[in-house]
Amino acid sequence: MGLLTQGKPLSWEETKKYAEYVRKHGILQFIAIYRKLKDRQDQYLRWGDEVEYMIVKLDHSNQKAKLALKAEEILKIMNEREEREGDKRASLWRPEFAAYMVEGTPGSPFGAANDHTAVLSHFNCVEDSMRTRRLEVEQLLAKDESLLCLTSFPRLGCPDFSVPRLVPDPENSGTGSLFFPDGAIFGGHPRFKLTLAQNIRKRRGRKVIINIPIYRDVNTKDPFLEHFNDEEAEDSARADHIYMDAMGFGMGCCCLQVTFQASNIQEARILYDQLTPLCPILMALSAASPIHRGYISDRDCRWSVISQSVDDRTKEELGEEPLKSCKYRINKSRYDSIDSYISEEGAKYNDIQLVYNEEYYKQMVDAGIDTLLAKHVAHLFIRDPITLYREKLDQDDEHETDHFENIQSTNWQTMRFKPPPPQSSIGWRVEFRPMEVQFTEFENAAFVVFIVLLTRVILTYRLNFLIPISKVDENMQEAQKRDAVSRCRYWFRKDIITHTSPPEAAACVEATGCPSESNICNSNLDESCILMSVNEIINGKGNHFPGLVPLLRQYLTSVEIDAATHCTVQQYLNLIANRACGNLMTTAAWIRKYVTGHEQYKKDSKVTDKINYDLIKTVNSIVKGETVCKELVGDSPFTKARILRQQK
Ligand code: GLU
Ligand code: MG
Fold first, then answer.
1. R_g over Cα of the chain
2. Is 255 a pocket residue for ligand 1 (Cβ < 6 Å)?
3. Where, if anywhere, are coiled coils annotated (predicted)?
4. Of 46, 151, 176, 590, which sits 20 to 30 A from 328 (CA to CA)?
5. How far apart are CA 109 and CA 45, in angstroms?
């Protein structure tokens, strides 16, 4: 989730003093990287996924599911192994925000082979890699504990949600939360994450305020308004919303991310832009977090919870008070959707006002960086650093990048454009960050392979998915809503073939049954961008749009790919296609159905300990392959066989 370094974090007062210093050197460091590496070429695609997990304990005697605060213990063992075995490790483990979370990645990136066929054959490795990862950690857990991919833990922040049991201490804790104790924050580095949370609170001048609309059921209180015996909470909690007050409610959620290494900086910029309109669509399809702090919400995705949970803007920046000591009005949280495209083609779709630091912008332009990229970086650099180490203050700007990374890695946006790290074999990369995590490896692999394959098609056929960035923002709002796959419609580009597309692109579109003329890029933006359902975007809309899955299937017929991988990829595409058309449920819809259908559910939006226990127990049996959940993955014999392989 961000930069981790050894040492002692400075207090907010000190960090603030160094804010300008960090930014200034961060910009110099970016200029140095750019100068050195702007012409770097990497021949082959490399990519890797990041899966975030929760360590869950099923307390069978009390029928409660809790979060086990064991990340530090597990990571200590994993780090020792990593030091001993180095790059022979099958998986790599990193801390996340919460003490019950770990993040696992493959030991080395996929696709690092030297020919195209080998790149595709890695699609058949990702699911096993994910399974190996989970089993590696589960071997270190007690019998009643499991490593689960849950985007949000339903009873996070309810009394007694963790083992060991912790009691929030609003008076004396760093976050001041009424619900989320400081001890549930990961503590590995000298309280790095706690400092992060504390400094966000100090910077904004009050606790974070998270309000998520409640799902209204027949017996839900009307209006739904809790009382907290706390002035700040009483002022902050909105009627008919679930109120939360700590970074942990957001950053304590899990997600599924994919990072791509592009062959050069231009390609990375194209991918960054082209994947941006896909963010809300893939978020809606992967929706998996309908419950927060023991209540069913009217949202299916974590996005706005995290966004609010790390929002460090002051009242001045928010526009609630006139600007006096702050420099800018800022329209979004540090965790939010991106504000500008950065490829040449993208420029004309940048239709929202970009807040950026003009001085840094000029400095970068003077140093030879083009205006689009300079604006992007100058936009990230309107933020203050929120944690800082004394030991790291003094940097060699030609060879180190910590100050740049400090600001970059605490801009948690839908996409991230990542320059190569200094002195490494890694190239220009792009990270795709909106997706929620699914229960099983089969599903997670399906989402990852879908998006990686889509990047291949975009680049090979030079497709164009760009729409005005304001419309992507509109889509982001829609995508989080309850049942957003079936109930909402999204702006999407219908004419995706460009004048630089090779003839195969048109042939590919034709082969899906959609006339290619209507898919040739139209310069009239209003006509090219239409409202479609997720189903239409993914599976096609008659004569108007070929659909992403049919396009990918068509692409697969044109490349060399071994039969086994081909078959696996088809199953993954089936999953995506069936989720999009509603034959299969999203994880969020399934969780809702489970909870509201539970015999003890009182139609009051409340998720009790018993309901939570039964839900998590069921999820655990799905993950272990003891049950195949037809509503989520279907019942093709192939899928069943794959899922059953998950058994230890
Ligand atoms: N857990 C965060 C999320 O759900 C992401 C943290 C990270 O950037 O790794 O989006
Ligand atoms: Mg992470």
1. 24
2. yes
3. none
4. 176
5. 10
